[in-house]
Amino acid sequence: MVEKITLKILRSIPSKGVKPTVEKYSVPVFKGMTVLDSLLYVKGHLDHSVSFRYSCRMGNCGSCSMVVNGSPRLTCQTQISELGTKEVEVRPLENFPVIRDLVSDYDEFYDKHREVKPYLIRRDKTEEEHPTSEYLQSREELDKYIQFALCIKCGQCFHACPITSTDIRYLGPQALSQAYRYLTDSRDQDNHERIEAVNTRNGCWGCHLAESCSEACPKGVDPSLGIQLLRRMVLGSGHKKRQKG
Q1: What is the DSSP letter of 148?
Q2: How many angstroms separate the first and last alpha carbons of the chain?
Q3: What is the CATH number of the domain that holds 18?
Q4: β-pairing verdict for 87-91 and 4-13
Q5: pLDDT of 105-164, one tens digit each?
Q6: Are both 129 and 230 inside the same structural domain?
Q7: What is the spatial distance between Cα 185 and Cα 82, in angstroms, rounded to a whole number?
Q8: What are the pLDDT digits (tens) for 19-40?
Q9: How far apart are CA 9 and CA 224, in angstroms?
Q10: 187 closest CA partner among 231, 227, 146, 224
Q11: Do 118 and 194 sit in the same domain of this protein?
Q12: CA–CA distance, 147 with 158 (Å, rounded to integer)
């Protein structure tokens, strides 16, 4: 007899007034099957209208982040056998507007990421746009920020953060930890504009140290640590705290 699970999917289409409802599907399970595989089975064999995102299927793109049995996970890396249950419930990440079913709107998330200037900034703008050589870096310089460069922008820290749930202006753990990542990069020459962007009560000073972001991160980035190191850097810079974000 083929082993089966009941896959429960929270479905909705807010733009059309379709309120959230849980639909159940009986899905056969094979060895090594992931939650994403089960969603693809439903899409291909049971209900073509079910909507969700995925891309690399290797845990590198973050597209398939969802809430599985109450916890944020990369569904392409979460095996059914690991969950130890015959019922698997899948919901979209919280703190993101829902477009349809399990597909969330990441526009605000990416806007906040862009606000901290997540790229190398050089004083010589001509050189920045048209580099003439590599920007060399020692292993020790790389080690200072490499942990935070592992971020795949999956949004799980944003989902887990209690501050993003209550303050829409808060930049969030992903953006703030990435601000620290670039400020610490020896190749970066911006020590003013990026600090100005995070030195507010809606920036690094808005964090309440819940550390739920670090617990949720599937890549071990530890955004909470990045925010605390960012605060230390801001204080050491001599910039005065801005009151408005």
Answers
A1: G
A2: 59
A3: 3.10.20.30
A4: parallel
A5: 999 999 999 999 999 999 898 988 998 899 999 999 999 999 999 999 999 999 999 999
A6: yes
A7: 38
A8: 999 999 999 999 999 999 999 9
A9: 31
A10: 146
A11: yes
A12: 18
H or E, element range at 156 = helix 156-160
Q: Tell me: do 66 and 166 sit in the same domain.
A: no
Which residue has 């094979």 as its token pair?
30
Mean pLDDT of the 202-214 span: 96
Are 76 and 182 in the same domain? no
The amino acid at 179: A
- How many distinct structural domains can be found in the chain? 2
In this prediction the pTM is 0.91
Buried b (16+ CB within 10 A) or exposed e, 143-171: ebbebbeebbbbbbbbbbbebbeeeeebb
- Block residue for tokens 């310089």: 141
Q: Residues 140, 210: one domain? A: yes
Measured CA to CA, the distance from residue 96 to residue 28 in angstroms comes to 31
Tokens read off for 141: 């310089």
Q: How far apart are CA 205 and CA 226, in angstroms?
A: 13
Task: Supply the range of the domain harboring residue 139.
Answer: 107-237
Last residue in a domain, options 104, 132, 149:
104
Domain boundary among 56, 75, 104: 104
